[in-house]
Amino acid sequence: MFGWYRYTSANERRAFWSCKIGYGLDAMDTQFLSFVIPTLIATWGLSKGQAGLIGTVTLLTSAVGGWIAGILSDRIGRVKTLQITIIWFAFFTLLCAFAQNYGQLLAARGLMGFGFGGEWTAGAVLIGEVIRPRDRGKAVGMVQAGWALGWAASAGLYTLFFSLMPGELAWRALFAIGILPAPFVILIRRLVDEPEIHKQQKQQQRDTNAGYGFLEIFGPGVWWTTLRTAILATGVQGGYYAITTWLPTYLKTEQHLSVVGTGGYLAVVIAGSYAGYLFGAFFSDRFGRKVSFIAFSLASMAIALIYTRMPLTNVMLLVLGFPLGFFASGIFAGMGAFMTELFPTRIRGSGQGFCYNFGRAVGATFPFLIGFVAQKMALGAAIGIFAAAAYGVVILAALTLPETRGARLAS
């Protein structure tokens, strides 16, 4: 699983760690909100709807930011775009600390979302182009595992700050520390080079005076790939949001389990997520991208069924937290490498940025739809239906797309 790293060049290692750390810091800044929502509700008297809107707006702006970052990475370069997105989300996370009312926090968080979504796109394209074909899945998947590390860092900082300060000050301090990723950009600028294949593509365009437009992803010979990949991304993210958004509420209100939301349960889920990313990365390189998507989809369906159909105790719930994090997060491990291999270099960022973030935007509606449907049926049944539908879509899309494991990138 890790032996490939010994054979990487110095530039490949610098790119790997820059993308992994960047993605971890992205996750850290993003996850702060989930921990401070109860304090904001108590301090500012927000309704649950207002608090939820902050999260929804962040997801929607991140989808737009991811698409824009994809276009920029094709035009100005992967590394420059990565730098811009990190500075962007760090600055607006800091700005959240100075919000004086709900409207200001909503605006700052929404603007932060542009950088949050863009960082994944730029980093995934960069590492996907730098690493050799046989190890691309492992490298990109391990970069994505940085999300679980950032999530854990966010939880640790939340525990530390709220134990040392009163809540009305601690939440501001937590957002203020979100500026920490900004100096990291200096290291990226000095140490990481643009991928060679991207530099060759730009030189060829200059030599032939050939232009390109991001609308090429909807053009002849490409649109069918774009459509199926966007559907795949919708299923992966819709299933994730369906399970992770509503399961805690279901377990608390309908199964009356007290361990939900505790530090121990969260730690088990985060550990499962990190292990899932690592195993998913190895699995996609060993057995193929399509087999990986199908296997993790079936396993995620089974987890959703177990959670919503079986009577659980607190001990069982704690144990099941690991496979929940493992499969729901592990399915993402192959996404970056797969999309990198599907699109040619001149529109790789545009294609990857659109497809992944189209899926994020549509998938973000699943929590709302589940809540709406749950007014007519049991919440557990609604979660099961939407999760099954989402992962069923993943399986169908994966079956129609080509296998790209080990593919050399197309120029």
Plain-language structure description:
This protein has 17 helices and no strands. It has helices at residues 10-44, 48-75, 78-96, 102-130, 136-144, 146-164, 167-176, 184-191, 196-208, 223-253, 263-287, 289-309, 314-330, 335-342, 348-363, 366-373, 379-400. The two termini are 29 Å apart. The model has no long low-confidence stretch (mean pLDDT 88). By secondary structure, it is mainly α. It has two domains: 13-177, MFS general substrate transporter like domains (Growth Hormone, Chain: A), CATH 1.20.1250.20; 217-403, Growth Hormone, Chain: A (Up-down Bundle). Helix 10 packs across helix 16.
Outline of this structure?
The chain is an all-alpha fold and 411 residues long.
